[in-house]
Amino acid sequence: MTRVRLADRSDADIARQVRGARAMLGWSQDDLARRAAVAPRTIADLEAGRRLPRDGTVERIVQALSEAGMVLVGTPDGIGLFLKSSVDGGANGKA
Question: What is the value of pTM for the model shown?
């Protein structure tokens, strides 16, 4: 499973990455919630900055994005994300 280094990212950084990755994939919050096996409200709250889910929940969200080809990068110097071009289930692979 992809390890999320929360110490390297603020709550706002994680929210921006999840929102951006979801947009790049063309997924709704419900799509991501279904793929990560979390409540849609969890995604909405995370993206709105209302609360950061527990580490295990964040890992499931990141894993769902990773399985669709998203790579979320976080270091003490900044954040980023990119979409691998050869993975099925990405922008054209709706849930």
Answer: 0.78
